[in-house]
Amino acid sequence: MSTAMLAALKWLRNRNGDGVFDRNQVLVAGGDRAPVMRATWNKLEARGLIEFYLDRRRVRVTQAGYLADLSRVEESA
Asked: What's the pLDDT score for residue 1?
C-alpha cells in the first residue's frame, strides 16, 4: 500500500472516520476538505479499509481501517 493511501486513511481517522463528498468530489470530514483525490479513496475501498454508503456520496472507515497501524505515517497535508 502506498504512503499516500496510508496518509489519507490517517487523515480520515483523525476526523471521526466519516465524511461526505461535496459537489466537486472532494471529501469533507470534521469540517475540513481532504487534500486527497477521489482515486485514492477508491483504492482504499478496494482494500477494504473504507466503505462508501448512501449512493457512494459518503465514506467511513471500516473495522480493518481502524486496525491498520498508522503510527509511523504522517497525515495528508
From this structure: 86
Provide the strand spans (E) within the chain: 18-21, 27-29, 32-33, 50-53, 58-61
Global pTM value: 0.93
Neighbours of 12 (CB within 10 A): 26
Residue 75 CA, distance from chain mean position: 11
- Residue 58: exposure state from Cβ atoms within 10 A (0-12, 13-18, ≥19): middle
pLDDT of 7 above 80: yes
Report the alpha-carbon angle 60-71-2, nearest 5: 65
Strands 50-53 and 58-61: antiparallel
What's the CA angle centered on 66, arms 34 and 22, to 5 degrees? 25
Looking at this protein, which amino acid is placed at residue 12?
L
